[in-house]
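tmp note - Glyoxalase
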Amino acid sequence: MRINTTTVSLTVDEVPASVEFFTRHFGFQVEMEADGFASLGREGAPNLVLLRRGIEVLPEDLREQRAAGVIIAFTVDDLAAEEARLRSEGVAITLPIREEPWGERLFMVTDPNGVIVELVEWVTPAGQAE
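out:
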């Protein structure tokens, strides 16, 4: 199997709010848009599809579900600079920068619909030689 592209599809209450968040703060561009639907793209990242909760294109048993328990993670080169940039743009930091024992440095923000975005930078874990 050859996978040509990766898309994350999220069901949210207010599609325009998430579109604004991802285009303004993460450099995504609107590729397609209609009532209750938006497809966003950005080089180097999976495509994002945003669907309004209740939209009829979803199977009936999924229509009322919202994106929950999903974390969209972006690996970046300079985590501290990205955190400072987002703060300066007025984005609330949901989880401040922290470093995990396995070498993952991260922080999180949350979009207006509750979609969690994690920014990650990989470092050599404490106590391990580079």
